[in-house]
Amino acid sequence: MNTNADLLRELRIDRSPGPPPSRKGLWIALGVIFAVAVLALAGWWLFARDRAVPVRTATAVSLAAGNAPASVLDASGYVVARRMATVSAKITGRVREVRIEEGMRVEEGQVMATLDPIDADAQRALSASQLAAARSEIARVQAQLAEAEANARRLQALVGQQLVSRAQVDQAVATRDALRAQLESARRNAQVAGDSLRISDIGVDNTVVRAPFSGVVIAKAAQPGEIVSPLSAGGGFTRTGIGTIVDMDSLEVEVDVGEAYIGRVQPKMPVEATLNSYPDWKIPAEVIAIIPTADRGKATVKVRVALKEKDARIVPDMGVTVSFLEKAPAQGAEPRRGVRVPAAAVVQRDGADAVFVVAGETAELRKVEAGGKLGDDREVLSGLAPGETVVVDPPAELAHDATVTTATK
């Protein structure tokens, strides 16, 4: 067993010199410090990149560019035809032939369809027979009248010689006058028969359906064998029309403008129309009239716009976007100063109008002198040059000289 003295000797501190330190650990420490520094720089760079504010931008356009009129209001509407008709027969009848198809152009008076003319032809034949009978009656009465007049003249000559009695003369004169009255009645009957024949001719003509004006067929509604009528008396089995035609020269645009903005629209105001189907085609137009009534439900006023270009691509019921333009400046007038930018680009900072101008990757807050609205845009009279890029709808956290990432509007 160990004694206490042995245990105390074991607790004694060894003061002998140890082995010399190795340089390998020093290089490892320096490598770790360098790696941490690189990771810190990379993290700072990534963090700073994530701090860039994403914004939408637009380019300032000079108001004097080409002296082009600016838009004061944008609205949407539809192409409508002022002259459109569903053509029907004037009488009820069975369709015998249809001569139209969708997309076909017809001229005024061109036959579109014919109805079965059996009844009309029979009525015309009857009227013609009645007229012939009336004319035969005229000839018979004229022959009798000629005989009666000759008899009356002969008896009047004999009564002076006292060869016949006065009673015989009076009877001959009465017979003559009665025949004259019969002749007048026969002539009137013949006139009535002639009028009846002309009406029958109209009835025959009514079995032919003609185009009331020149246009393009947009719908074919009847087929041979169907019954057509100007009135829908036969329910679903009776057609009320042969087809629908549209005068393409009468196409115009109807636009619903909000009551709050109708004051910007004036008659004869220039308009630029864009069909939704052809967004790159700008059609010159002009305001025809402002309809003097409002839609209570939609709080809008209808405006009629005339298209100055006629083209087969324009068809009824197409959607249209129109821009009501300022009147073009007079020739020789001074160019307008300033630029136009989206209205959402102009903000209030420190009680003044300002815009954020993007240069490189930073946004500069710049105070400007803003003017009136031009539709969805706004005038900037000073403080901004044409071609500069501005921020649209700048976020509230966007500050002067902030880093931004841009996307053109």
Q: Explain this structure to me?
A:
This is Efflux RND transporter periplasmic adaptor subunit. It comes from Luteimonas composti. Residues 83-229 form the Multidrug resistance protein MdtA-like barrel-sandwich hybrid domain. Belongs to the membrane fusion protein (MFP) (TC 8.A.1) family. By secondary structure, the chain is α+β, with helices and mostly antiparallel strands. It folds into four domains: 56-67 and 336-408, conserved putative lor/sdh protein from methanococcus maripaludis s2 fold (Beta Barrel), CATH 2.40.420.20; 71-82 and 249-325, Efflux pump adaptor protein, beta barrel domain (Elongation Factor Tu (Ef-tu), domain 3), CATH 2.40.30.170; 84-115 and 207-246, RNA polymerase II/Efflux pump adaptor protein, barrel-sandwich hybrid domain (OB fold (Dihydrolipoamide Acetyltransferase, E2P)), CATH 2.40.50; 118-205. The protein contains four helices and 25 strands. It has helices spanning 4-10, 24-50, 118-159, 166-205; strands spanning 53-59, 61-62, 71-81, 84-87, 93-98, 105-106, 111-115, 208-210, 215-220, 227-228, 238-239, 243-246, 251-258, 270-275, 282-295, 300-307, 319-325, 339-342, 347-349, 352-359, 362-367, 369-374, 377-382, 389-392, 402-408. A hairpin with a 2-residue loop joins strand 20 (352-359) and strand 21 (362-367). The chain is elongated.
